[in-house]
Amino acid sequence: MDTNAKTIARVLVDQLEDLEYEAVPDVMKEFVAFLAENKLLGSWREIEMHIHKAWKEKYGVSKITVVSAHPLTELANEEIEKLAKGADIVRRVDERLIGGSVIRIDDKRIDGSIAGTLQKLKMTLSK
Amino acid sequence: MAQKQQIIDELRKTVEQFKSQAQVESVGTVLSVADGVVRLSGLSEAKSMELLEFKGGVMGVALNIEEESIGAIVLGNAQNINEGDTVKSTGRILSIPVNEQVVGRVVNPLGKALDGKGEITSDNYQPIEKIAPGVISRQSVSVPLHTGLKAIDSLIPIGRGQRELIIGDRQTGKTAIAIDTIINQKGEGVKCIYVAIGQKESKIANITARLEKEGAMEYTTIVLAGASDPASLSYIAPYAGCAIAEYFMDKGEDILVIYDDLSKHAWAYREISLLLRRPPGREAYPGDVFYLHSRLLERSARLSEEQGGGSITALPIIETQGGDVSAYIPTNVISITDGQIFLESDLFYKGQRPALNVGLSVSRVGSSAQTKAMKSVAKTLKVDLAQFRELEAFAQFATDLDEATKAQLERGKRSMELMKQGQYRPISFAAQSILITLLNEGYLDVIEVDKILEFEDKFLNYLETAGSAILKKVTDDKEISDDTKTQIKKLADDFVKGFAPEQIKDKSEEDKD
């Protein structure tokens, strides 16, 4: 079953490539009908898990979270979208960062915020 | 004291050197947290036994690395960790800071000071898990490690680099043997590490105070995972103790490590394993509970001269339930160690302390490390005790016994009496071997059984004053030559004359009967 779910997820991700968001509901309807026909509806959770993986395999990144002290500018937004095609982008504003931003790309984190720098300085001084 | 300007300069230097570049960190997310065990997603590059940093600086260790998630244990308070929190990997395998400063201190398994005498600062990190020395880097046990207890040093000798299990029910004096052994290492050049696993902190406070009183804290480190600490700390405590010991062993020093006790260690590991959903086996312990202890005890070794010649002697302690040595963990540890000291409640309550069962206790390698002096006198003692055990049961029913049997029984009773010893009163091996010589030569046969310990006390005092030359000769030569034996006999003759005569059985009266 495991390989099956993996293959199905991969095919689905391939099918959705270059598709506009408006067309997605139709593809999903067809997909669910296919699952029901093949008695695979019971394992939809497993398929969902593999979709994340297949997505990451295909596009390199599946989720990007940008937390910034101030709302991002248009230009910054465009740049981010250009960087990672196909990834989910979550944008959040957190004033506690004081300035700069923290970007998390799947399991990597780049802390470029003032709050993070101050924290690091505090650790260095306390050593 | 530092000047204000110096402090300001130092601060300026630190701030100038500080680099505020954004760095890429490897992070994960907490999926669930329960009883000190955390499940994480992300952290795809985490290694087994890698240190992880949770919110608020709480540390953890990755234990289960799976395709989708990581199972980790929290080494501290897990109350502030929530689902969804970010976890940072440190890239560092679990290790503790070690240097000469740890000697004389009470630390937790992460190397943090618990005695209020200031933090231990060291740049030298020793990994907690390490592969044991191989065949080539070892040599066989050849130097004795004296416990200062007559019964052990004569009958179940321990050598440096040996692993000798202390096993028995609760309240049979297991810890007492370990503490006496630590006290006896004064001036012997052996550093001691006492690892307390899941112990009451009041008990450790008492032990620390006692060791301080005896001047033994100068060469002792206590690694404490208390009863109120999380199971994860109990789990890593013996490995942390061993890591400290390895630091000194690599410098060519001799170390004694006491693991008190490995039953509680197995419980802690069982708790962690069940929470990590590893399949339970016999008595609900996980399948690798044997490896848990074997990899720890295998790290005790005596290194070859090329490797510096250092050693780690391990005295693991196991608590049995109702004297059952055939339970799972006791049998495991018995098979790993080089012998066991078996303590019995019955003997303890009969007043035989240390409550050593001479028949079931063995030392598989220690006799090759025993000093010549002790070896020569212990041979007769062993035979006497074996014969006594055989005759004892039989003699309860018989009234008429021949003279030879009677003599054997009497000798046996005195031998058993001489094996008794008070707590915190270790005796040097030279004094021990002289005492046993007296027993073998029949000097104790004329003393009433219940006066033996009084005789011993007074004789030891006499030996230190009038017989100091003999004591020094045995200590230096490490053997009892015929000449020395004659001197001992002469000394004993003089002493017996002076020892309260009414306590000595009147031989002539006995002969009349």
Q: Could you give the count of β-strands of chain B?
A: 16
Number of helices, counting only DSSP H or I runs of 4 residues or more of chain A: 5
Radius of gyration of chain A: 20 Å
Proportion in β-strands of chain B: 15-25%
State the end-to-end CA separation of chain A.
53 Å
Number of domains of chain A: 2
> Approximately how much helix is present in the residues of chain A?
40-55%
Structural class of chain B: alpha/beta
Oligomeric state as shown: heterodimer
Strand order of the largest sheet of chain A: 2-1-3-4
Please give a quick description of this structure.
Chain A has 127 residues and is of the alpha+beta class. In chain A, 54% of the residues lie in helices and 17% in strands. Chain A is built from 5 helices and 4 strands, in the order αααβαβββα.
Keywords for this structure?
heterodimer, A: 127 residues, alpha+beta, 2 domains, four-stranded mixed beta sheet, 5 helices, 4 strands, 54% helix, elongated, B: 513 residues, alpha/beta, eight-stranded mixed beta sheet, six-stranded antiparallel β-barrel, 16 helices, 16 strands, 18% strand
Question: How does this model look, in words?
Answer:
The complex is a heterodimer of chains A (127) and B (513). With 127 residues, chain A is of the alpha+beta class. Chain A folds into 2 domains: 2-59; 63-125, no CATH class. Chain A is built from 5 helices and 4 strands. Chain A has helices at 2-16, 24-37, 44-59, 74-83, 114-126; strands at residues 63-68, 88-93, 101-105, 108-111. Chain A has a 4-stranded mixed sheet. Mean pLDDT of chain B is 91; it is low at 507-513. Chain B is built from 16 helices and 16 strands. In chain B, 39% of the residues lie in helices and 18% in strands. Chain B has 513 residues and is of the alpha/beta class. In chain B, a hairpin with a 2-residue loop joins β1 (24-34) and β2. In chain B, the strands form 3 sheets. An 8-stranded mixed sheet of chain B has the order 8-12-11-13-14-10-15-16, with helices on both faces. The chains are: A alpha+beta (127), B alpha/beta (513).
